[in-house]
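Dock alpha-D-glucopyranose; give full complex structure.
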Amino acid sequence: MQCPARLRLVVPLVCSTLFLAGSLPAAAAEWIDPEKETVEQRDARMAWWREAKFGLFIHWGVYAVPAGTYHGEQIKGIGEWIMLRGKIPVAEYKAYAQEFNPVMYDPEAWVRLAKAAGMKYIVITSKHHDGFALYDSKVSDWDVVDATPYGKDLLRPLEQACKKHGIKLGFYYSQAQDWTHPGGAKASRKEGEFWDEAQKGDFDHYLKSIAYPQVEEILGQYDIDVLWWDTPVWMTKERADLLRPLLKLKPGLITNNRLGGDYKGDMSTPEQKIPATGLDYDWESCMTMNDTWGYKSYDNNWKSTETLVRNLIDIASKGGNFLLNIGPTAQGEIPAPSIERLEAVGKWMAVNGESIHGSSASPFRKLPWGRCTQKDGKLYLHVFEWPAGGGLVVPGLRNSIKSARLLADGTRLDCVRGGGDWVIQLPATMPDPLATVIAVEIDGAVAIDHQYLSNAADGGIALEIKTADIEQPSYGEKMQVGRADGQEYIGNWKERDASLSWEFKNVRSGTYKIVAELRLANNPSGKELMFDLQLDGGEKLGKNVAGLPVGQWSDVEFGTVELSEGVHTLLAKRRTVGPALDARRIRLVPQL
Ligand code: GLC
């Protein structure tokens, strides 16, 4: 329901003015600015979230009506972006709301499904980039109560169901991109770019008259635990500082790193990807089950349950949270393939959840056969590749093993010392092909003699694909690991946010030449194609590889470096998106 226009402008401006004078309700008193809190205060505030490890993302709105098709054409990309991708005029897009009638919506069932999947929190889009609110906003009639035949708040019943089942609730809110309210930011980075005169307006006025009061509404009227900002387009620090004080309305609230104004928030949010290693502060990988966040009727590229379970394990083994998405239909139904996968993941979590919930990152650098999490003096070994012969090598573990058991049924396993490693004798067949978990009780605090890549007999260091930490891109084509002439390589490297990285130990200080074995698939334009290597986070050693002979391996020299004894890291990335590159290995060649 929308308050009268004359008041509409005054109320938020009054709010923001009054607020700026510090007139927020009493709750503000307990609020501690995350930028100023102590480690203990932050740990207390983040505790439930860090324990949860696994949550459900819900992208739901009017975009589920076109469901990826506009004027008979299938619109590429993520479904909730159809208005921008299809350059759909505001009035035409708003007409879809007449078909948004989620009579099948069953928030109780949704919460039970998430809980049974092992999820402990839900984040739902309260307002996405199309500006449509899933609750009754007082500053706009572009919401589910005023603009759809359904006519009821969708968020309150979900909030109630979450409370009933002990599930934490978060709201996603698109604070800058708004393709229907005049002045909302567009996906472009150029101020004022839009595709319909109806979108024309002042961005700062939009922030004060829509974004500010709506964030005040969702924080003031709902009992939520997470606020998930998104796409901080044009969000300068000054603009972020208009919205950020609203957090005072909800002491203890957790927010992400997407408000803008260079605010880190409480967690980093790698999207559609899993970082190659852990990150330096709390983080949450959000991913779709197919290729779209918002419902598309024809996106059936569903990830397997194995992929979803192993993504959850991989993320937990690196200390992160996994926010896994569903996109319900305009009728309020969760697509059947999503339900099947959540139920299957739930079956695995019912048996193995103790190895995920409350766990912390692996003490090992890399494990060739799987991942590891740890909790309460136990190591949880998540085996993906069952060792031929049944001997599972646990590298460099200095502790004594008090016991090793299959987590699923408690079967005790024999363990023997082998040099600096332990070898755990596994049954002949892998009990759970998704991932079999071994619970290992050790004595004392975990201590590992890390097994590093190191110098070969000739003094050189060969960084191979099989020992690389591979970070796939968020969107676009994934890199593929392949084998040719008995050598592993990574192919189809097109995106700039993909990377390879290694950690290695140099045992002989000196000068080393860096040589990368690269192959160009094609480069019709001959455009510059910069490839960068970065040692220990230092200056980038960049090389234009556009001129490489197409289709054959070349040794590309990136110069020489002085390498001290000890542990180093090397990061390899493309500087620009472009034609596919293949990489086979990177060599550090001692210069005698
Ligand atoms: C991107 C998209 C947005 C989606 C979000 C999820 O920012 O713009 O549609 O909600 O990713 O992380």
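Observed: Confidence is low (pLDDT under 50) at residues 3-28.
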